[in-house]
Every structure is written in structure tokens, then in C-alpha cells.
From TrEMBL:
Chief subcellular location: membrane
Function: Part of the twin-arginine translocation (Tat) system that transports large folded proteins containing a characteristic twin-arginine motif in their signal peptide across membranes. Together with TatC, TatB is part of a receptor directly interacting with Tat signal peptides. TatB may form an oligomeric binding site that transiently accommodates folded Tat precursor proteins before their translocation.
Organism: uncultured Sphingopyxis sp
Description of how the protein assembles with itself and partners: The Tat system comprises two distinct complexes: a TatABC complex, containing multiple copies of TatA, TatB and TatC subunits, and a separate TatA complex, containing only TatA subunits. Substrates initially bind to the TatABC complex, which probably triggers association of the separate TatA complex to form the active translocon.
Name this protein carries in UniProt: Sec-independent protein translocase protein TatB
Annotated stretches, region: Disordered: 74-130
Lipid bilayer topology: Single-pass membrane protein
Subcellular location: Cell membrane; Membrane
Transmembrane segments: 6-25
Length: 130
């Protein structure tokens, strides 16, 4: 877009040196550099905003397609609970909750005697557990 050949750049530097002078040229270059940095930052910010808007639009389109496909699948394969007659769960029809395993008499005797139940059939190779 802005194609600047090395000879054109050299011509611009020579003209700036003659017009501005060698004493003020570093200040002018610093000033131009600051403004170029600001312009690039604004362009980067603008481009990031456009990219974000495009991503959001694509996501909305994908969500719309997903919803349509999900609705089509749900119409084709309805849930069993939704189809036909469904009765509210009662205490008799509800499955019983799992109970804790029964405690054996040997475990009760060990706990009463102050001996903790043995947790390992074979002690570890490093030595007994603390």
C-alpha cells in the first residue's frame, strides 16, 4: 500500500535535514515517532474491536444453528419422561438409597479394644505405617 523505496526514504531524510536542520532533527524524529506509535495503537485497537465484533457475530450464528439442530433432535427423539404418562415419584416407587456396609462383630471388638482396624494386608516395603 505505502511502498517506500530506499531511494525515496533517503530523499526524505535529506530534505528533512536541510529544512529542519541537524540540531532539531532528533526532536522532530522523536515527535513523528510518538505520533506514529499513537496512530498504530489506535489502528490496532480499532482492528481488535472489529475482530471481536466478527467473532461475536459468528458465535451467535453458531449458537443459532446449534439450537435449531438441538430442537430437531429433541423433536425426533423425545425424552421418555416427557412422552406419555408420567406419574410423580412416591415413597414406595422411589428406589431405596444405598446404605453403608454392615459393620462386622470383629470390627466392633477391635474398636472397643482400642486397636484400630487393619487397613493393609501386607505392610509397605518402607516400614510400618505411622
Amino acid at each position: 500500500m505505502f511502498d517506500v523505496a530506499p531511494t525515496e526514504l533517503l530523499l526524505v531524510v535529506v530534505v528533512a535535514l536541510v529544512v529542519i536542520g541537524p540540531k532539531d532533527l532528533p526532536k522532530a524524529m522523536r515527535f513523528v515517532g510518538k505520533w506514529m506509535g499513537k496512530a498504530r495503537g489506535m489502528a490496532r485497537h480499532f482492528r481488535a474491536g472489529l475482530d471481536t465484533m466478527m467473532r461475536e457475530a459468528e458465535l451467535e450464528e453458531l449458537e443459532k444453528q446449534w439450537r435449531e439442530q438441538n430442537d430437531a433432535i429433541m423433536r425426533e427423539f423425545p425424552r421418555i419422561d416427557d412422552a406419555g404418562t408420567s406419574q410423580p415419584a412416591t415413597a414406595e416407587s422411589a428406589p431405596e438409597a444405598e446404605t453403608a456396609p454392615a459393620v462386622t462383630d470383629a470390627e466392633v471388638d477391635q474398636a472397643a479394644a482400642g486397636n484400630p482396624p487393619e487397613t493393609h494386608a501386607v505392610p509397605p516395603k518402607d516400614g510400618p505405617l505411622p
